[in-house]
Amino acid sequence: MKRYDVTEMIIEKKIAKKLKWSQIAEVVGQSKEWTTAALLGQMTLTAEQAAKVGALFELPEEAVNLLQVVPYKGSLPTAVPTDPLIYRFYELISVYGTTFKELIHEEFGDGIMSAIDFKMDLQREPNPMGDRVSITMSGKFLPYKTY
Amino acid sequence: MKRYDVTEMIIEKKIAKKLKWSQIAEVVGQSKEWTTAALLGQMTLTAEQAAKVGALFELPEEAVNLLQVVPYKGSLPTAVPTDPLIYRFYELISVYGTTFKELIHEEFGDGIMSAIDFKMDLQREPNPMGDRVSITMSGKFLPYKTY
Amino acid sequence: MKRYDVTEMIIEKKIAKKLKWSQIAEVVGQSKEWTTAALLGQMTLTAEQAAKVGALFELPEEAVNLLQVVPYKGSLPTAVPTDPLIYRFYELISVYGTTFKELIHEEFGDGIMSAIDFKMDLQREPNPMGDRVSITMSGKFLPYKTY
Amino acid sequence: MKRYDVTEMIIEKKIAKKLKWSQIAEVVGQSKEWTTAALLGQMTLTAEQAAKVGALFELPEEAVNLLQVVPYKGSLPTAVPTDPLIYRFYELISVYGTTFKELIHEEFGDGIMSAIDFKMDLQREPNPMGDRVSITMSGKFLPYKTY
Amino acid sequence: MKRYDVTEMIIEKKIAKKLKWSQIAEVVGQSKEWTTAALLGQMTLTAEQAAKVGALFELPEEAVNLLQVVPYKGSLPTAVPTDPLIYRFYELISVYGTTFKELIHEEFGDGIMSAIDFKMDLQREPNPMGDRVSITMSGKFLPYKTY
Amino acid sequence: MKRYDVTEMIIEKKIAKKLKWSQIAEVVGQSKEWTTAALLGQMTLTAEQAAKVGALFELPEEAVNLLQVVPYKGSLPTAVPTDPLIYRFYELISVYGTTFKELIHEEFGDGIMSAIDFKMDLQREPNPMGDRVSITMSGKFLPYKTY
Amino acid sequence: MKRYDVTEMIIEKKIAKKLKWSQIAEVVGQSKEWTTAALLGQMTLTAEQAAKVGALFELPEEAVNLLQVVPYKGSLPTAVPTDPLIYRFYELISVYGTTFKELIHEEFGDGIMSAIDFKMDLQREPNPMGDRVSITMSGKFLPYKTY
Amino acid sequence: MKRYDVTEMIIEKKIAKKLKWSQIAEVVGQSKEWTTAALLGQMTLTAEQAAKVGALFELPEEAVNLLQVVPYKGSLPTAVPTDPLIYRFYELISVYGTTFKELIHEEFGDGIMSAIDFKMDLQREPNPMGDRVSITMSGKFLPYKTY
Amino acid sequence: MKRYDVTEMIIEKKIAKKLKWSQIAEVVGQSKEWTTAALLGQMTLTAEQAAKVGALFELPEEAVNLLQVVPYKGSLPTAVPTDPLIYRFYELISVYGTTFKELIHEEFGDGIMSAIDFKMDLQREPNPMGDRVSITMSGKFLPYKTY
Amino acid sequence: MKRYDVTEMIIEKKIAKKLKWSQIAEVVGQSKEWTTAALLGQMTLTAEQAAKVGALFELPEEAVNLLQVVPYKGSLPTAVPTDPLIYRFYELISVYGTTFKELIHEEFGDGIMSAIDFKMDLQREPNPMGDRVSITMSGKFLPYKTY
Lengths: 147, 147, 147, 147, 147, 147, 147, 147, 147, 147
Known about the structure:
The structure is a homodecamer.
Chain A: H1 3-17, H2 21-28, H3 32-39, H4 47-57, H5 61-66, H6 84-108, E1 111-125, E2 132-143
């Protein structure tokens, strides 16, 4: 059994039980964003979190153990994603990537926005012209140092 | 002359004149995010905006004309970006792409977040543990329709 | 079980029962274009549509559930398709892509033709020189906005 | 000088003279779709057409000659296009490619829609919910033959 | 079961029964070239042809049905083939591709040689310096049309 | 100067002088197929052939020398060709590659058709249904040997 | 069963029986170089050779038949090999490839070293500074011909 | 000026002066194999060797300096070489790569054949069936060590 | 069974038994770095080491044999790794690769740092600003030789 | 002028002036590792550092300005490096990448070694069996956080 198989089990049970990610997140005790990433095989759970997930989805012990092992991360089957929803984010990097770079460097100097010390929040933004998806990302700025 | 050459001219002049993107944005009369993307060759300017940019950077008339022509978009030299700052955004899609997909579909059903009817805002978020980069993205949700 | 497996089941049953896509579309109550894409794993069905499809193809309940979950879209095994029929469409983009771009921008300004708020119709066009395939695509124009 | 250079000359002059593709098409005496593709380096002009184009854009004789030579076709810099407008067409093939295949085979049997004996028409489709891009493609069906 | 599985069954039985493609072609009633391509999963058989093949190779009914369904074509595992025999044909295109283009355009004008309305014949050409492979390809010329 | 530049010079002069490949082949004293490949930079000329070509196209001495140096072969800009005429040949390998393999091995055993000890002939094949391109290839069979 | 499965069987048995390739080669009656390539799925065996191999490794009849069928050649999982030993050979081509080309053309004129009419010998070369691997390759020179 | 430009200068002069690599190697005082690789930009020359080469090809001082700087190695424009002569070596690795691996490991254990402490010799091998290219490679075996 | 399967077995057992790599290394009698690489399928074990590993993880005899066979090395599923931890090392090569090259050549001349006669040590480096990962690599310098 | 051009200028002058990186580092006042990376276009200099570099290499003012602008990082021309010295580092990741991952996670939990808050030191390690390259890397451990 591999982490990938655990992800499969969870998704099958989630559909059968008609659970929502936000409900699962409450059980886990973390945000819906982190919980979804974790159960899709991208994050590592504590023993306590894994036990809750195991109980919720009736997972075997081996699966509960695997949830506590750091996974090989990367959730997409191709370097350029084919799914239209995910592709739009890739397109944003293609179009705005150099803009991100210029503005962050202008504000902070040489360095990066951490993708590790990072959190995000995804909300529906009501709008009479059609509701909008609002995503707020927050990552620590890490400066390059000279030595 | 091509749009790419206009971008080069603007960058050279920006460095020589020690201008900041936020200052340029004030001249153009748009946000710093849109203005940066536009002057890096990703957006189309109106005649009025192009004239202001032409005056600021002392561009030839041909360049001012090109700023008003829709460009072939895409600002990165490789499908997987090598620059560490830009790569971190690519990594976020690799790690969180399926999470974006699950949560947007849970909230909105089948469809995408538009990368066209889209805006973003990039701010410094002061933090005693080290300042953070905060990016808020807002894109209209576009549902798939049956027919 | 995954959506891909549901697609396999449907195709096997469709061949065994000698059903046509246009007949299936009548059962589903949508156009043959949308119905075909949906049953090939690219669109999400409502509970009612999924139930009809499940009855028609004698699918297990898990499969009927999966038809109602938004799929990871993308129906081709390679970035450049090898199948001659599908490749011709890729070739049209290779040869006419910049033409699409110029003419849409000339008519509408900067923006895109939506691939989400989109429909299409495929018909036989009788012709004494040999019948023709006629495809009409209609997608909403989405303008880039300044902010 | 190469065909690519002729395309560059035409685009520079078109911008400077503020000509529209539909106006140029009238001079050439063909549809705006074919004319745009031809002047973007994808089609071969007759001596008469090339002479008209040469006069309109003040091209040197060598360029007028090159317009009459069959070009190496393919107008995009990457296998998967980065420009959002053109990408949407690529996405349609990714999502609907197998649908095109199924429906054309259902109607016509094994074979392809010609991308050579092909024409297309691009129109604005007024719509109170937002105008739409309407593209009609017509290609001869070519059946595979046994031998 | 998929077409690929039918191809596998046929190849296993062909080896066990020590049949030659030319013998199989006689049973099918077509050339050895078309028959081989068809049974390797690239062409569509009529009900009558499929029945003959089913009888010869003792195929189950599902397989006989699949032989009559248009397959997803493309018989090679990689874009650049690794098998030396097949690679030599790829090399011919790499070295002679622009020659094919120049000579066909010189003789016929702009257009292509059809790969659909196409037939070929492969023969041994006795030669005292070592026998030669002789391949004759014949494809209809399809001219690009203006519109 | 490189061989590529010599090819450019020849093509420019050929267009300006309105010469046909068959006429050039007569000057060189070889077939039109070999001559075209050679002048497109794929074959090596003898001193005598190079001198004739140099005289015909008024090439500088350095270019005449370069025609006698073995070139780095490969005439296409991408691994999968984008030009529709050349792509059709690539498609033939994709669809018929395993057929070539099976039939050559059936006739000759394990080995290849040489792409070096190779010649070809390209002709117009008149046909009331539309003229056809006929290509005959002849390559020496080279058997694998045990040792 | 496929050739690949036969290779797997042979490797498993070879490990279990602690046989060396040189011992197996003696049974087959060919060099250790050819025998290894053949049993790794790259060469075709005669009925007699296949029978000996079948007896040595206790293969089923279907496997013995498959050893006599020409395989789809190519033994590596990626275009650029990851295994350090095999990569060094790839590196030699990357660094010395143009040297091979220059020196063979200087000695023989335009043509290639055959990879079909080819043999090789691999030996340990004792050396006080550390033993060396010595590989001697011999391939027939095949000249390009004019026609 | 870069090393690549120095290589270009040397090749142009070599053609103009009709020098052979073996003659140049005598001037340099090394083997023809090493000398060719070095002057094609893959090896580093001593001051003395560079001076001799500079004198022979009338190179400017900057070029003579560059010959003494370690170059960025790799002499081929694509990962899979298109030139038929060089491709045959790539094919040998594709077909025989796992054979190299098995036989070297059988003889030496885990480790590699060095591509650095390496030399080669390329000779014409007269043969009544057609002369052969004979290449002898000798590389030090480097064992993996435990620690 | 293949080496890959042995790696899987070991990882499953390691998780179930809650063993640490450093504990396993003590059993094997080598460093934790070499032991981890070896049990992840990259190194070859002696009979004695394999027996200890087999006992510790209760492996079948076939697995113990496979641990003693030189594996096909390369532990990552894609050329550019998607896992963030491993990607950072790839990024270091992308950013510092030419620096490594310059400094090693400045100190040692032309040659490489061996990746075979190589060892490494990975330690936690306590630091009040946050602990650090400290990796020391030591590889023999191998000079290119002239011949 | 671009940063790439500044790098070129510096390298040309460094060769002409026969300067060593360690000497340049003393002028800049940083380690030789950081200085080399910076002058090869990967790091951003302060105004003071840039002025010193400008004086040392006689750079124009525009170049001195560019040294202070954050560059688009990534110093290699291909995703898999062809240069043997740099490739060995890529090979280490291919072979030891999963080992790095396991051992860092065992010691620190889920997270990464920073490639930004990072320093390295490269030294010659004298050894009677042949001197060794010793590289010590130190990067801050960054833990993934839940939220």
